[in-house]
Each structure stands twice: as C-alpha cells, then as structure tokens.
Amino acid sequence: MNLRFHWMLPKGGEVAMQTVQETSRVLTTKSSSKASLPDMEGWLKFSRCAEEVGIESVLMSFSRYEPDTLVIAAALGQVTKKLKFIVAYRTGFMQPATFVQQVNTLSGLIDGRVALNIVAGSSTEEQRGYGDFLDHDERYARADEFLEICHAFWRGNNEDVVFDGKYFKVESGQLSTPFLAPDRKTPEIYVSGHSEQAQRLAQRRGDGWLRLIDTPEKLAPLATHSREHGIELCLRLCVICRPTRAEAVAAARAMLPDEETEKQERKILSSSDSQTLKQALATADEVGWLNQNLWAGLVPFYGSSSIALIGSPEELAEAFLAYKAVGITQFIISGWPKLEEMNIFGREVMPLVRRYEEKKFAADCRG
Q: What is the pTM for the complete model shown?
C-alpha cells in the first residue's frame, strides 16, 4: 500500500497571509480574526492546488472560532473534482441520526468525497460554551454510543435503529438517504486523541487512529497494535522543506514569534484537558529535537500539531519511508507558508516517496 498524504485546510484568510506569525492561534482566537469568516477565494485556490500536486484529502478543523465544517465541505466539493474532505466534528453537539442525515446528504452532493475526524471534545471552557458539561472520560463514553448509533444507520439492513444508552436513545430510527460513494458504504472515520479512551474508541468504532507524530521507534508498537485491531495509524504533523537541512532549520527558527505570543499561547494550552495538547507541550519543553529531523520547538506558539519534520526533500522522503517501515500508512500535514509549503511537498517530496515505493515494490516482486 502506498502512503496516503492529506493536508490541513488553512483557516479563513491564511492563504493570503504573508508571514507565518500571522497564523498563530493567539491571533486566530481574537474577535477580529479572519478565521471566523468563510474564505471561498483562498480555500478554492488551496484546494485546486492540492488536487494538482496529488494531495488526497484536506482536513477542516472544528472550533468556536471557525465556520462549520460540514457546510465548508459542501461548498468546496462543488468546485473540486478529486479532492476529499475530512470533516472534523465533535460528538454530542447534535443527535446521531441528524448527524448521519447531514453526512449522507453531503456524500450525495460531492460524490462520496467525505471522511470524518471524530473528536470527543476540547477545552472545558469551549465545550461548556456549546452546552456540553461532561468531563473527559464521559465525553469518550458518549462518543462510543454516538458512533455505535451512526454505524447502525449506515448498516441499514432495512431494519429500524433501536438504541437505549446512557447518553442517547433512539426508537424506530429510519433514514432513507444513504451514504453514497463509489467505493464505500460508510465514511472513513478517524478518531483523534492521545488518551487510552481515544485509542479504544478508534479500535471499536473507527478506521484510523489520528495522533501526533513522534519518532518511528516510539510509534512502532502503537502501529503494530493498531493493525492488530484492524485500523490504520494516521499521524498529524508539519513539514518544513528546503533545498538543504541547514536552510530548513533556519526557516523553522525564523517562525518563532515574540515572547508575549508564547505567554498567550501557553494560557490557551493550559486551559485544555486534552491529553494531546499536554503531551505536545511537555515534549516541546523537555526534549525539543526528537531526532535529527523532528522538532517540537514550534508547539508553544502554533499548537500541538506543529511538531515538524524538517529537512531537504531527500531527507523528508526517507523519513516518511521510515514511518512506513514500522506500519504507519497515513499523514495529515501542515506547513508555512500554507500554500507554498504544500506545493513544495507535492512537487519535490511526494515524487521521491512514490519513486522509492515503486522500487521497493519491484524488488519485492523479484524476490
């Protein structure tokens, strides 16, 4: 199986931004941020470039600071042909039947080019702002019930959906609109999180477990465990690619913002009960460089998913193949500047990866 490469859809206004520092989460969360508004011009430009360079899907983040992901996917799906959309959504904000109805309708509008990134929750403050007062563990228990009901609707079988749980109850559930895709009867589901509850939820209800990148050596047992449970391990990361490693490191260090931004970002991070955020910040503070090409130094400024693979095209291609060697199959990537970094990756790194994969396949066939 070839590696699958996805990309993070920029927030509103980010495609046109000239500096990396403009995209910090501190600025994103301000009331004046362009992230709160739809950006069809920027998103369309980005999506068409993603199609051109061979990116499979784009992930759309969900937060109170951004427009709704399902609506964005419906709009962009009308003006793209191949690109898929990984829609992030938090369980508990609507009833499972309503959610399935919306996802199924979306699949029919954009030829099934939709997958789901299921998130059990975020910071306590933000969750309560949406009317959700459950704690971390209960949110995962609710997500398990939510996805069990969703799968029951997707299975169909001409039977009513009946469910009586702690968080949801359904009687004589029926939906006539099916999930429509050329190759699937249900959407591909990625479950996010670093906690044991997230891992178990992915194994029970998902197709993939989405977590932050780490070294291949540390992730190898997790990849093996995931495969044993029939799911794929998908990594969230950033890339900074330049002609040489020295140039890439210099570009990465140039992205560091001022001290005030760091203080504000740490305040945002400390308010979250997400294990993913806590572990990423600890890695940045205690380790910094995880190996020669993997740096966590941008996490305090740009969030947990900014752990970055840094190097030349050849170094990055070899790094991705090292992850493939331990059983990791998918990656959701970001970069700065948003559009330029994706183009560099698609035109300079991906062809090298595909060339190496072809050589390995040919060698395996001969052997």
A: 0.92
